Amino acid sequence: MVHAHLGSTQTSVVRLRQCNSCFTPRMRAAVARRAFRVSNAASTSAKQAVQDDQVELGKTGIKVNSLAIGAWQWGDKSFWGYDTYGGYGEDEIRKAYQGIVDSGLNFVDTAEVYGFGKSEKYLGDFQGKTNTSVKIATKFAPVPWRFTSDAPVKALKGSLDRLNQKSVDLYQIHWPGFPVINSWANDAFCQGLIKCHQQGLAKAVGVSNYSVNRLQRANGIMKDSGVPLASDQVQFSLLYRKHEKEGLLAKAKELGVSVIAYSPLAQGLLTGKYTAGGSKPGGPRTAIFSDDKLEKLQPLVGLMKDIGSGHGGKTPAQVAINWVMCKGAIPIVGSKSYEHAQSAAGALGWRLSPDQISALDAASDSLQIAVGLPFENW
C-alpha cells in the first residue's frame, strides 16, 4: 500500500516538474503535503516495526528491543578516542541518543567504567533534557578493592546518581573477580545483586563474561534467593563463536537466562566498510584491521552483501547483527552518531532465513579471528 502511494506521488512530482504551469499553487501544495504524509507514514511504520521487535529479559517479564545500543563509546578516550582521534564528541553522541529515540529503540547498555562514569552521566542528561526515557542496563566493576556484598549496592547508587534514576532495568556484574585477588568474592557479588533487586534499585540482575560453570553457579545462588538471573553478557559474533560452540548459549537457554552479545560486529570488522590497503580506524583498534584479516573476510562480507540485497538492501552490518539475534542472543550495537543508531534499528523487524543462517555459519567457521578477553577464563 505504501509503495503504491509512493509510486503515484513520485509520478505526480515528475509531471509537476514537466508542466509546472499546468498546476496552481494550491495543487502544488497538495502534492507536497501528500508526499510528506506518505514519507511520514513510511517512517512511522518502520519505527513501529522496531518497537514491536522485542524479547523478554530472562524470565523477568521485562520486555526490551531485540537489540541494545551500547554506550561504551560515550566519553571513552582510551579505546574509542572520544573528543580526540575518534572524530566525535558530546554533540555527536547527543545526536546518537536522539537517533535512538527517533528510530523506536528502547534499550541502552552502559557501565560505571565507561568513560569513568561519563557514559552514564551523558545518558542521564540526554534523557532529562529531551524528556524521554529508555530501558537502561549498567554494570558493576569488581575491581580488586571491592569484595563484599555491599559493594554492588554502593556502586549502583553511584550509577543511579549519574543516570538521574531511582532504579535501572538491568544491573550486571561486569566480569568475574580477579584471580587470587578477589575471585573468592564472586558469590558475595551475586548476593550484592540480590540486595540491589530487593531494595528496588534494579528491576533485574545479570552477569557478564561468565563461563558456563560460573553462569550455573550464579544462577543457583539467585534461584535460592528467589531473584531470577536475567542475563549473561558475553562476546559473540560471526567472528567469535566460542560461546556457541562450547555450549554457553545452549546452557543459558536451558536456564532461562538471556545471552546479551557484545561486539556483534567484531569492533567493526563485520561492517564491510574496511578493505585491505584502505583507511583504518585510529587508536588501539588499528591493530585489529590488518590487511591479512581484511583479505580473509572478503568472501564473508560478499555473502552478507548478497543476503542483505535480498532483504531490501540491508547492509553487511545489519545482516551480521540479525544473525546474532537469530542465534537467540541480544546484540549490543555501539552508536556514536545519529546515523549509527538509525542503522542499528534497520537490523530489527525482519529475520534471516534458516538457509541464510546456515550459509553464514559455514562461511564463518574458519574465520574465528576475533580475540576474546581474559575475563572469560577467570
Walk me through this protein's architecture:
This protein has helices spanning 2-18, 25-52, 90-103, 118-130, 150-163, 186-198, 212-225, 242-245, 248-255, 291-309, 316-326, 338-345, 354-364, and strands at 54-56, 63-65, 68-70, 107-109, 135-140, 170-173, 205-208, 229-235, 258-262, 329-334. Helix 4 packs across helix 5 (150-163) and helix 5 packs across helix 6. Helix content is 46%, strand content 12%. It is globular and about 65 Å long. Helix 4 (118-130) links the parallel strand 4 (107-109) and strand 5. The longest helix is centred in the first third of the chain and has 28 residues, at 25-52. The protein has an eight-stranded parallel β-barrel with strand order 3-4-5-6-7-8-9-10, surrounded by six helices. It has a two-stranded antiparallel sheet with strand order 1-2. The protein contains 13 helices and ten strands. It is an alpha/beta fold and 378 residues long. It has two domains: 2-42; 63-367, NADP-dependent oxidoreductase domain (TIM Barrel).
Helix and strand topology:
Elements: H1 2-18, H2 25-52, E1 54-56, E2 63-65, E3 68-70, H3 90-103, E4 107-109, H4 118-130, E5 135-140, H5 150-163, E6 170-173, H6 186-198, E7 205-208, H7 212-225, E8 229-235, H8 242-245, H9 248-255, E9 258-262, H10 291-309, H11 316-326, E10 329-334, H12 338-345, H13 354-364
Parallel strand pairs: 3-4, 3-10, 4-5, 5-6, 6-7, 7-8, 8-9, 9-10
Antiparallel strand pairs: 1-2
Helix pairs in contact: 1-2, 3-4, 3-12, 4-5, 5-6, 6-7, 7-9, 10-11, 10-13
